[in-house]
């Protein structure tokens, strides 16, 4: 029988682990980057903005951890391949990939949702995650270990009125998570998804473009806990999914929703 081991739940087991985080310079990805860094990991951030990248690297280095940044667009497979190569060159390998880059897309009913907007959301949220998995897996297979955590959403298990592309894309992220988990389970590679409900990040702030208090309150009231998540609460779950404490968990969609899907 396995002994209860309090050390398993201490964060020190990320010491010298290399964590590659797409969308790592904002919101949930940034919160996870700081938590991993505090837990002893080296973090490689991949995101669109050079300025946000430099700022985040500097802030992480200030807490005494190692960090690096690459400007990439996750919709460009060559960028994603280069990101993986740069990370391996900089830190000697990759132990954990967190696919956090994502966009919400406009709020619009389906008959008015433009084809371009649909394509753009699918491109970032679906192609981006597929490219990340595809690019890192050869490295994980070669070293016979590795863990991937994909950011899905409660919109990956529920409908999301006025966000058809986002809901479609997050259902797809869960499908890709389960499929990759099956393909690589026997190769000691775990693949899981984290599914938050509304979380206080720039993505959510930008959704209230016209300071729509009514819409904001309606969303908050829809959550049984009557509040949105903090990015740190989602980051904790990402660390758990990536840690040895979750060693038998793969293909799982871990829901953090303040009770929403229990309604
Ligand atoms: N905030 C929420 O309410 C919420 C809820 C459920 C799921 N999520 C998911 O969590 C993830 C992180 O969201 P967040 O709230 O932190 O958003 P955010 O907007 O704060 O951060 C997303 C990051 O992704 C980056 N990004 C966007 N498109 C990119 C591209 N093409 N290439 C590279 N980087 C790109 C952005 O620059 C940004 O830094 C997303 O996948 C999102 O769908 C968020």
Overall description:
- With about 260 residues, the chain is an alpha/beta fold.
- The protein has a single domain (about 5-200, about 235-255), classed as 3-Layer(aba) Sandwich (Rossmann fold).
- It has 8 helices and 7 strands, in the order βαβαβαβαβαβαααβ.
- It has helices spanning about 25-40, 50-60, 75-90, 115-145, 165-185, 200-205, 215-220, 230-240, and strands at about 20, 40-45, 65-70, 95-100, 145-150, 190-195, 255.
- The chain has a 7-stranded parallel sheet with strand order 3-2-1-4-5-6-7, with helices on both faces.
- Strand 4 (about 95-100), helix 4 (about 115-145) and strand 5 (about 145-150) form a beta-alpha-beta unit.
- The longest helix has 29 residues, at about 115-145.
- The structure holds nicotinamide-adenine-dinucleotide (NAD).
- Nicotinamide-adenine-dinucleotide binds near residues 28, 29, 74, 100 and 103.
Bound molecules: nicotinamide-adenine-dinucleotide
Q: CATH topology, which one?
A: Rossmann fold
Largest sheet, strands/sense/barrel: 7 strands, parallel
Give the N-terminus to C-terminus distance in angstroms. 37 Å
- What order do the strands of the largest sheet run in, or round the barrel if closed? 3-2-1-4-5-6-7
Q: On the 0-100 scale, what is the average pLDDT?
A: 95
Helical residues, percent: 40-55%
The CATH architecture can be given as 3-Layer(aba) Sandwich
Number-wise, the strands total 7
CATH H level, superfamily name: NAD(P)-binding Rossmann-like Domain
**SSE topology string:** EHEHEHEHEHEHHHE
Classify the beta-strand content into a percent band: 5-15%
CATH top level label: Alpha Beta
């Amino acid at each position: 029988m396995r002994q209860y081991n309090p050390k398993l739940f201490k964060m020190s087991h990320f010491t010298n682990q290399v964590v590659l985080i797409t969308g790592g310079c904002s919101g949930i990805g940034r919160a996870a980057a700081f938590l991993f860094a505090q837990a002893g990991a080296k973090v490689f951030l991949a995101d669109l903005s050079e300025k946000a990248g430099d700022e985040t690297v500097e802030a992480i280095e200030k807490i005494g951890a190692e960090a690096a940044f690459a400007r990439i667009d996750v919709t460009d497979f060559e960028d994603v391949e280069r990101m993986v190569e740069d990370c391996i060159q900089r830190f000697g390998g990759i132990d954990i990939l967190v696919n956090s880059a994502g966009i919400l897309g406009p709020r619009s009913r389906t008959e008015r949702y433009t084809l371009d907007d649909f394509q753009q959301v699918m491109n970032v949220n679906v192609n981006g995650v597929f490219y990340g998995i595809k690019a890192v897996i050869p490295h994980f297979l070669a070293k016979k270990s590795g863990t991937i955590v994909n950011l899905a959403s409660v919109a990956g298990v529920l409908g999301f009125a006025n966000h058809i592309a986002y809901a479609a894309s997050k259902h797809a992220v869960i499908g890709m998570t389960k499929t990759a988990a099956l393909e690589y389970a026997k190769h000691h590679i775990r693949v899981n998804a984290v599914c938050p409900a509304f979380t206080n990040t720039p993505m959510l702030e930008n959704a209230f473009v016209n300071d729509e208090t009514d819409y904001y309150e309606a969303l908050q009231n829809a959550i049984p806990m009557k509040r949105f998540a903090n990015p740190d609460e989602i980051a904790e779950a990402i660390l758990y999914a990536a840690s040895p404490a979750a060693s038998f968990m793969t293909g799982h969609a871990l829901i953090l929703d303040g009770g929403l899907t229990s309604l």
